Amino acid sequence: MTDLQPPLPDPANRPRRWLRVVLVLSLAANLAVAGLVLGAWITHDGKRGPDGRRGDKDKIVRELGFGPYARAIPRDNREDFRAAIEARRDELRASRSGLRSAFEATLATLRAEPFDRAAMAAQMEAQRSAITKGQRIGHEILLDRLASMSPEERAAFADRLERGLGREPGKKKGD
């Protein structure tokens, strides 16, 4: 009858409990990383942001550097805002073209020997001028939109802007 009982495992060959725990934790960590990578790969198309899918229409808004102002615009009014920007597309395109040209010249200046400080300064000034022109156009558009808002709409805009700046609406920074 003793032949029917399984042999007792050799204590030297039995896996240690801590080794099993480490292997399970390692597997869990690997699955978590794989899930994050797969999730990022599936959802990332280069056109997502805090406001959801964004296409080329929002590219100009981002380039104008509105930052928290753009995020404070109510979602249902953003299409009107984009239309106002689109109406001035040619001016903005010229500004971007000037900026692109200035950067091309900058790359050549950076690679040239000897380094021409005056040429680099002129190119940086051209870049600043192109950026300022684009921002000026954006500011005009934003000011027009703000001027067309009712006092209640402007107050709601201010609240959204304040939240975007990381503060509770109506509270001062020191409060």
Can you list the strand order of the major beta sheet? 1-2
What radius of gyration results from the CA coordinates? 29 Å
| DSSP strand content | under 5%
Model regions low in confidence, pLDDT < 50 over at least 5 residues? 47-52
Number of helices: 7
Helix content: 55-70%
Q: Can you tell me the CATH topology of the domain at 53-164?
A: Four Helix Bundle (Hemerythrin (Met), subunit A)
- Assign the CATH architecture of the domain at 53-164: Up-down Bundle
Euclidean distance between termini CA atoms: 83 Å
- Assign an overall shape: elongated
Number of strands: 2
Mean pLDDT: 76
The SS-based structural class is mainly alpha
Account of the protein in words:
By secondary structure, the protein is mostly helical. It has a domain of 112 residues: Four Helix Bundle (Hemerythrin (Met), subunit A). The protein has seven helices and two strands. It has a two-stranded antiparallel sheet with strand order 1-2. A hairpin with a 2-residue loop joins strand 1 and strand 2. Helix 5 runs antiparallel to helix 6.
In short:
The protein is an all-alpha fold and 175 residues long. It is built from seven helices and two strands, in the order αββαααααα.
Secondary structure layout:
Layout: H1 17-43, E1 48-49, E2 52-53, H2 56-63, H3 68-72, H4 78-87, H5 89-111, H6 117-147, H7 151-164
